[in-house]
Fold:
Amino acid sequence: MNRPRHPDKEVEEAVRQAEALGWTWRPQGHWGRLYCPRHDREGCQIGVNGTPRNAGNHARQILRAINRCPHGAGERDDGDV
Ligand SMILES: [Zn+2]
Structure:
């Protein structure tokens, strides 16, 4: 998927980190949405705003979602979530 660069540097950085960890970006809403490596309804996702009011906070929000995600690429967790 060809992802447009996010206009904010911090958010772009967070999105890149997500992608490096196997998250997938899809266009949706005001900019896009990130889906964790687990592509089913148990997987995590986070909306990314193209024009967040507070970009620093938004970037941290994205990083938090990445950190919270127990579904790392290559790992299988079919048990409790
Ligand atoms: Zn996840």
The chain has one domain: 9-68.
